[in-house]
């Protein structure tokens, strides 16, 4: 198998998955290899992956090792990376801004209150993430599959 033997659809998906990987904080090559393996009807040897994607064999080995370290749970990897790259820095900035606003004599009270409310929201999101992270994969999948049923069970559905 090589690039020329991949269907246009497979090529498109592999390129897209690689691009999305970079947005999720995952190495592009790792994500592309993941996509190729996902679409492959059979296991692929590292040499074939290297030829198919046009990448160095050593890069394939390192990427496969990283994929093995993930286990099956890509959702958790992506979620962790997004938290690390999006929520954590936002929490830091909000805390610094609130601290600065508290020290400034001319601090705008409304701005400080708004930032404090936003900080509380992000702290709640972080707490929810940390709770979900503790769930076993099977329980997390079951919760995700429940969808609206979980919301109704909690009595939170919009009426």
Plain-language structure description:
With 159 residues, this protein is mainly alpha-helical. The protein folds into 2 domains: 3-70, Arc Repressor Mutant, subunit A (Orthogonal Bundle), CATH 1.10.10.10; 74-153. It has helices at residues 8-23, 28-39, 46-53, 57-70, 74-103, 109-134, 137-146, 148-153. Helix 1 packs antiparallel against helix 2 (28-39) and helix 3 packs across helix 4 (57-70). The chain is elongated and about 65 Å long. The model has no long low-confidence stretch (mean pLDDT 87).
Q: How do you describe this structure in short?
A:
This protein is mainly alpha-helical.
Q: Mean of the pLDDT scores?
A: 87
Radius of gyration: 22 Å
Low-confidence stretches: none
How far is the N terminus from the C terminus?
54 Å
One letter per element, helices H and strands E, the order comes to HHHHHHHH
What is the total number of structural domains?
Answer: 2
Count of alpha and pi helical runs:
8
């Amino acid at each position: 198998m090589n690039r020329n033997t991949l269907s246009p659809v497979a090529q498109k998906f592999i390129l897209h998955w690689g691009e999305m990987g970079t947005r999720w904080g995952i190495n592009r090559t790792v994500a592309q290899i993941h996509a190729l393996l996902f679409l492959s009807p059979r296991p692929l040897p590292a040499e074939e992956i290297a030829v198919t994607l046009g990448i160095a064999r050593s890069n394939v080995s390192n990427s496969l090792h990283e994929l093995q370290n993930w286990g099956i749970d890509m959702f958790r990897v992506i979620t962790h990376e997004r938290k690390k790259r999006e929520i954590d820095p936002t929490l830091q900035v909000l805390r610094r801004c609130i601290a600065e606003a508290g020290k400034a004599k001319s601090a705008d009270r409304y701005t400080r209150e708004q930032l404090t409310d936003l900080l509380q929201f992000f702290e709640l999101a972080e707490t929810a993430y940390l709770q979900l992270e503790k769930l076993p994969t099977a329980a997390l999948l079951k919760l995700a599959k429940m969808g609206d049923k979980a919301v109704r069970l909690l009595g939170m559905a919009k009426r």
